[in-house]
Amino acid sequence: MTHSASRAAADLPAVETMNGPAAVRAVGAFRLVYAEAFTEPPYSEKEADVALTFDRFRAEAAHPAFRAALARTATGEPVGMALGTTLGRRSGWWDPYVAPSDRHRTFCLLELAVRAAHRRQGLARRLHDTLLRTTDADRLLLTVHHAAAPARTAYHSWGYRTVAETELWGDDVHAVMLFDHPAAGRDR
Question: Is 161 exposed, middle or buried (0-12, 13-18, 19+ CB in 10 A)?
Fold first, then answer.
């Protein structure tokens, strides 16, 4: 590796995986990334929306299958995050898309975000793949705002397929996407 290549590798944000309790301890970092990413169009969330999301964060993190990935620069600045959990027996917006018997084998990617200055460098994919390695679920499920074309394009290129388009929360259209885990079907 050349000096400039090793320097570039050293400048890549480090990605750390966390369980629920660790993620709760780092809640400020997750909130910072989320707020920057989701107050931008097409999401245009207000501070009250961000607050509501993080009111739910502790409850989501309490689920035993909750996992998170957080990217930080060498100076510790949070620049990206991903989080999710296995559906288990819980019921929710995913009911029309995942049979009750398949929920325990389905990991829901709840959030994936990268701060603006660190986009288009492969960090979202690194966060996604790091989180994917923390689960042995057979499939991943997510929703993405229909107007978030770069995100939808990325998910499609990573192997997700759109299974529905719906107004899940009574407002904007979201694509519901599924990804079959590469290790699905292996012996357990």
Answer: exposed
Could you write out the DSSP letters of every residue in 21-48?
A: HHHHHTHHHHHHHHHHHHTSTTT---HH
Banded model confidence at residue 35, pLDDT cuts 50, 70, 90:
very high
The DSSP bridge partners found for residue 162 are 177
The residues that bridge with 114 in the sheet, in sequence order, are: 80
- The dihedral built from the CA positions of residue 135, 141, 146 and 149, taken in this order, carries a sign that is positive
Q: Which amino acid is at 107?
A: F
> Which residue type occupies 67?
R
Over its C-alpha atoms, the chain yields an Rg (Å, rounded) of 16
Evaluate whether 124 touches 114 at the Cβ level (below 8 Å): yes
Q: Alpha-carbon distance 153 to 158, whole Å?
A: 9
Q: Tell me the C-alpha distance between 128 and 144, whole Å.
A: 14
pLDDT 10s digits, 47-90: 999 999 999 999 999 999 999 999 999 999 999 999 999 998 87
**Burial class of residue 22 (count of CB atoms within 10 Å of its CB; 0-12, 13-18, 19+):** middle
- Predicted TM-score of the model (pTM): 0.87
The single-letter code of the amino acid at 87 is: L
∠ CA(182), CA(185), CA(186), 5° rounding? Answer: 85
Strands 106-114 and 139-145: parallel
For the record, the structure tokens of 61 come out as 């993190």
